[in-house]
Amino acid sequence: MREIIFDTETTGLDNKLDRVIEIGGVELENHFPTGRTLHLYINPGDRKVHPDALAVHGITDESLKDKPSFGEVVEKILDFFGEARWVAHNANFDMGFINAELDRLGRPPILQERVTDTLALARRKHPMGPNSLDALCRRYGIDNSHRTQHGALLDSELLAEVYIEMLGGRQAALGLGTAEMGRRTLVEAEDEVALQLGARPKPLAPRLTEEEQAAHAAMVGTMGGKAIWAKYDA
């Protein structure tokens, strides 16, 4: 399964008026980074960076003057994502901007069924929160000390680590190695481990005494014929 963990930075908060000015993406294959990334700065045209947004990401109007427009890089973006899932933290925000940019170009939107929201995933997994990217990095022991401001590629790289941990972390590999897990699913790997172990040549002796077994049978007998334990004592 191919996924792109991505993030955007924008001129402001209103996707009907504001524009995408940075996008970063990290490719995962079966929940492992492949090393392929996307990172682009984008000229927002006449739209200026709002001071509040500038305080968050530090991207100035001046630095964007020589950058390509979204229309000039849209093919590069869509080619990089391909048929992969779009994975973002608070995905409604990022997808709102992406789809607004696509709409301005007469392009079809990215459908919700192709999107994973890691914020929603974090809220289900950690309902007491907090579930910001910084908070999740602290929870999973991921070093984000170099994140002094938001940046699309840096945030995507951190989110990729967080996402992998939320799905079970690197222990899910069962010691089979990154490349091998890239070719097989976790279920297949678990099945293989079970096959390698096989059945015991000689069953273990029961650890319950005859008195304990008799006491258990007597207790089950008081539960009636529909008790689930009766199935195991039959």
What does this structure look like?
This protein is of the alpha/beta class and 234 residues long. 43% of the residues lie in helices and 15% in strands. The chain contains eleven helices and five strands. The chain has helices at 51-57, 61-64, 70-81, 91-104, 118-125, 133-140, 152-166, 178-181, 186-197, 210-221, 229-233, and strands spanning 2-10, 20-29, 32-41, 85-88, 115-117. It has a five-stranded mixed sheet with strand order 3-2-1-4-5. Strand 2 and strand 3 form a beta hairpin. Helix 6 (133-140) packs across helix 7 (152-166). The longest helix is centred in the C-terminal third of the chain and has 15 residues, at 152-166. It is elongated. The model is unreliable at 172-197 (pLDDT under 50).
The neighbouring-strand order within the major sheet is: 3-2-1-4-5
Helix content: 40-55%
Shape assignment: elongated
| Average residue pLDDT | 85
The chain-level structural class is alpha/beta
Low-confidence segments, ≥5 residues, pLDDT <50? 172-197
Count of DSSP strands: 5
Beta-strand content bin: 15-25%
Oligomerization category of the chains in this entry: single chain
Helices, by number, come to 11
Order of secondary-structure elements: EEEHHHEHEHHHHHHH
Global Rg:
26 Å
Largest sheet: 5 strands, mixed
- Taking the alpha carbons of the first and last residues, their distance comes to 45 Å
How would you summarize this macromolecular structure in one to three sentences?
This protein is of the alpha/beta class. The protein has helices spanning 51-57, 61-64, 70-81, 91-104, 118-125, 133-140, 152-166, 178-181, 186-197, 210-221, 229-233, and strands at 2-10, 20-29, 32-41, 85-88, 115-117.
